[in-house]
């Protein structure tokens, strides 16, 4: 994370970039690169594809900066742009990626391992492991939604833009995902946690401690 803009309004830096400030573009790239790379790797787990796609997005943003409309949340905008570029680049199979793509066919997207999540006081190891396993058993779009909502703290409207569906579809998908998780996790593991009401809080706590 770029400490120079860590405590500044990222939207102000974004506007400076749109005005032609190359330093602001570099700061935005540094500030968001880790999140964008992590998201891309969850989606396809192809490092070269992910890196190329992120670079392509920033090149295009710089070239088209004058025509970019108002952006409320640069992070959501960038994730959405990288997602679209990843799918496009995967379809065109950039030189040198064909073999990697074939090797990764069948790899589960947005899967997690318990080792990714740091231990935290509020969640027992058994509950954490059970929750991670339950998340991995969700359909792919529900796993992606869980990641976008609880790791990136994005609003439903922003997630809808990223996943290219309407907001109500995202809300319905979340309800199904939470219902699936409640059904799969052993109630005894909650150890005094309100099983129904605190699942959302537990997910937020879990994903804020991801490595």
Description of the molecule:
The protein has 211 residues and is mainly alpha-helical. It has 2 domains: 3-103, Rna Polymerase Sigma Factor, Chain: A, CATH 1.10.1740.10; 114-208, Orthogonal Bundle (Arc Repressor Mutant, subunit A). 64% of the residues lie in helices and 0% in strands. The chain contains 11 helices and no strands. Helix 3 (22-43) runs antiparallel to helix 4 (47-63). The longest helix is centred in the first third of the chain and has 22 residues, at 22-43.
Features:
211 residues; mainly alpha; Rna Polymerase Sigma Factor, Chain: A; Arc Repressor Mutant, subunit A; 11 helices
Task: Tell me the layout of helices and strands.
Blueprint: H1 3-6, H2 10-18, H3 22-43, H4 47-63, H5 74-92, H6 98-103, H7 125-136, H8 140-150, H9 156-163, H10 167-184, H11 199-208
Helix pairs in contact: 2-3, 3-4, 3-5, 4-5, 5-9, 8-10, 9-10
């Amino acid at each position: 994370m770029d400490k120079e803009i860590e405590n500044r309004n990222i939207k102000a830096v974004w506007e400076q970039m749109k005005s032609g400030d190359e330093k602001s573009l570099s700061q935005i790239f540094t500030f968001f690169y880790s999140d964008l790379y992590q998201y891309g790797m969850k989606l396809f787990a192809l490092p070269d594809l992910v890196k190329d796609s992120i670079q392509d997005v920033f090149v295009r943003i710089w070239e088209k900066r004058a025509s970019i409309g108002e952006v409320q949340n640069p992070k959501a905008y960038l994730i959405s742009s990288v997602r679209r570029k990843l799918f496009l680049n995967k379809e065109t199979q950039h030189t040198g990626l064909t073999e990697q793509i074939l090797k990764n066919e069948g790899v589960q997207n947005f899967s997690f391992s318990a080792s990714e999540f740091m231990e935290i006081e509020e969640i027992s190891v058994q509950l954490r492991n059970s929750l991670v396993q339950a998340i991995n058993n969700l359909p792919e779009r529900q796993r992606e939604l869980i990641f976008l909502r609880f790791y990136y703290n994005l609003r439903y409207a922003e997630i809808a833009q990223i996943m290219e569906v309407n907001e109500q579809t995202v809300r319905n998908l979340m309800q199904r995902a939470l219902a699936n998780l409640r059904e799969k996790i052993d109630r005894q593991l909650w150890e005094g946690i309100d099983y129904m009401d605190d699942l959302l809080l537990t997910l937020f706590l879990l994903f804020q401690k991801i490595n």
